[in-house]
Amino acid sequence: MNPLASIRQPTTRMLDPAAETMPRRDLAALQLARLKTSLERAYGVPHMRKRFDELGVTPAHLKTLADIRHFPFTGKADLRDNYPFGLFAVPREKVVRLHASSGTTGKPIVVGYTAADIALWASLMARSLTSAGVTPEDIVHVAYGYGLFTGGLGAHYGAEALGCTVVPVSGGMTERQVTLMRDFGANVLCCTPSYALNIAEVAATSGIRIEDLKLRVGVFGAEPWSEAMRHALETHLGLRAVDIYGLSEILGPGVACECTEQAGLHGWEDNFLFEIVDPKTMEPLPLGDTGELVITTLTKEALPMVRYRTRDITRLVEEPCACGRTHIRIMRVTGRDDDMMIIRGVNVYPSQVESVLVGLPGIAPHYQLVLTRSHALDQVTVEVEITADAPRDDASREKIGREVQHRIKSTVGISCGVVTKLPGEVPRSQGKAVRVKDLRHVPS
Ligand code: DLL
Fold first, then answer.
1. Per-residue confidence (pLDDT) for residue 444, from 0 to 100
2. Superfamily (CATH H level) for 5-23+113-336
3. Among 129, 217, 242, 245, residue to substitute to test ligand 1 (most atoms within 8 Å of Cβ)
């Protein structure tokens, strides 16, 4: 880590120590009691009742937490098929907020919140921010998008609930972001890691140095990112970069967040039940195994979710964390199972390629993967960018390209083409980065 970041050590306060350090046995008892209520709430929704009936289960069948395995999974399709409000468990009049995610195909996913849900979300976001090292004295610059996306308003309500001074900038107009961050003296930056990188780059080109900024903590999430990217962001922005996780269907940001130990994201188990299942067989996996994260909400009113398939691949760790929190840790999400590429039989996530690229001398931390198909085989070309100070002649660029190719082959295990682009040629992110350009179905 760069020396500035270590000087600006965040604090390790807890917002709700009683809840956050609850002994695991008490936590399990609380989960069981809350799960019963939540299943009953879901059972009141006609579509969910049908799903329960198909499997011959009612909420009364839940005797232990492990019994959750007898209940039906829910997925994006359930939300889509019941568009827009069909899965709400309360009358529409009780819903005070709607959010939606556009998705790649068809109808958006619509999610609703009662006033109590919004209060819960704000409190879990405030808890998450505190665990990331944010304090009520901080100025929080929110550059997650505001609107139907949950990032902006989620971070906003959480930071406000914590008592911070919130700057609701949303995404875009990056030069202005940098100026405001400097002029207002923001201590905390909330945005996607790819946008943070864009901000860092614009700051550098505008002549703003780390010392001109008062950033101490970065609360970065909404997309997969690597340890290498964490290191780059900490170095470029002089802050401690903390990972935050969430999804609209479950709450938005604040389902889980790292603490200042930066050793996995505490999933807030007093409000959610986390499982890992084998994405093929859908069978629960033993603790510690890698698989698909499945989440059941325990306290949400408007949209209770039962065994929601996140598609996110990770593993859970129950060992105590040095911070003292007892809640389970969700290890860094490597990617979604639908982002996984299979290149000549090898499973690859874009974030694995990122781990190799970011930090390589002469290579800027901006990249895209281009997928094509030739003779029924998928091929990947990695588009990387050379740094502004790297030599630009063909021979040097080729040499760098070969180096990248070699590293990807030896670390990730795939053979790929590499195109070395000039500074600024790889598109910059304003929110969630588009890492993969899939041209497999484009006629050549
Ligand atoms: O991205 C909520 C959010 C906003 C989380 C701001 C964190 C910060 P959706 O747009 O519904 O919600 O997208 C959810 O994004 O299933 C993951 O695939 C991915 N994702 C979210 N956080 C992380 C993370 C928001 N920390 C989807 N690491 C999720 C990796 C993440 N992937």
1. 60
2. ANL, N-terminal domain (3.40.50.12780)
3. 245
- Of 124, 223, 249, which is best to mutate to test ligand 1, by the most ligand atoms within 8 angstroms of its C-beta? 223
Q: How far is the CA of 247 from the centre of ligand 1 (A)?
A: 5
Query: What's the number of CA atoms in the CB half-sphere (13 Å) around residue 366?
Result: 23
Q: Rounded to the nearest whole angstrom, what is the distance from the C-alpha of residue 434 to the centroid of ligand 1?
A: 14
- Give Cα separations from 71 to 16, 29, 296 (angstroms): 31, 19, 11
Give residue limits of the domains in the chain: 5-23+113-336, 341-438
Dump pLDDT digits (tens) for 183-228.
999 999 999 999 999 999 999 999 999 999 999 999 999 999 999 9
CA distance 321 to 24: 13
CA 256 to ligand 1 centroid distance, Å? 10
Q: And the tokens for 76?
A: 């994006």
Residue 107 — very low, low, confident or very high, per pLDDT cuts 50/70/90? confident
Q: Do domains 5-23+113-336 and 341-438 have the same CATH topology?
A: no
Cα(444) to ligand 1 centroid in Å equals 33
* Interatomic CA distance for residues 243 and 121, integer angstroms: 17
- The arithmetic mean of pLDDT across residues 278-306, rounded, is 97
pLDDT, residue 155, reads 98
The dihedral sign for the CA sequence 281, 299, 140, 96: positive
What lies within 8 Å, CB to CB, of 346 at 6+ separation is: 412, 413, 414
Q: Whose CA is nearest to atom 9 of ligand 1?
A: 247
In angstroms, the CA 333 to CA 292 distance is 10
Q: Assess contact for 215 and 186: CB atoms under 8 A.
A: yes
Torsional class of 323: left (φ above 0), alpha (ψ -120 to 50), beta (otherwise): alpha
Q: Is 207 exposed, middle or buried (0-12, 13-18, 19+ CB in 10 A)?
A: exposed
Beta strand ranges found along 24-161 (DSSP E): 97-101, 109-113, 139-142
Query: CA–CA distance from 91 to each of 48, 52, 62, 94, 303 (Å)?
Result: 16, 21, 26, 6, 11
CA nearest to 79, candidates 248, 299, 282 = 248
CB of 224 shorter than 6 A to ligand 1: yes
Cα distance between residue 249 and residue 74, in whole Å: 10
Read off the pLDDT band of 104 (50, 70, 90): low
Would you identify the CATH topology of the domain 341-438? GMP Synthetase; Chain A, domain 3 (3.30.300)
Q: Which pLDDT does position 170 carry in this prediction?
A: 98
